Amino acid sequence: MSGCGSRIRRRHRALKTQIFRELLTYMLQDPGTVEPALDLILISRHLERIGDHATNIAEDVIFMVSARDVRHHAF
Q1: What's the total number of domains in the chain?
Q2: Most buried residue among 6, 23, 54, 56 by CB atoms closer than 10 A?
Q3: CA distance 26 to 21
Q4: Distance of alpha carbon 72 from alpha carbon 32, whole angstroms
Q5: What share of the chain is helix, strand, coil (3-state, %, to 5)?
Q6: What whole-number distance in Å separates Cα of residue 40 and Cα of residue 48?
Q7: C-alpha–C-alpha distance, residues 15 and 47, integer Å
């Protein structure tokens, strides 16, 4: 389970970075896009936090049900 969670987290962070770079390009080309682009960047950050919380809840449930610690550990 923790391997799957790590892959999902890496994929999500890669997508977040891609979105940030694309929005930055739009903001540099057209100053009118700055405000909506910043809103999207903040939304992306908040969605990441929601995903982190959901992962933590899932890890807690696995621990409560099967007494297995599947949290990702620092490398």
Answers
A1: 1
A2: 23
A3: 9
A4: 41
A5: 85, 0, 15
A6: 12
A7: 12
Residue 54 lies in a domain: yes
Mean pLDDT by 10 residues, the chain (75 residues): 67 86 94 94 89 89 91 61
- Let me know if residue 61 belongs to a domain: yes
Report the chain's C-alpha Rg in angstroms: 17
In a domain, residue 19? The reply is yes
Show the domain range for 9.
2-66
pTM of the model: 0.68
Structure tokens at 72: 């990702």
In a domain, residue 55? The reply is: yes
Distance CA 15, CA 21 (A): 10
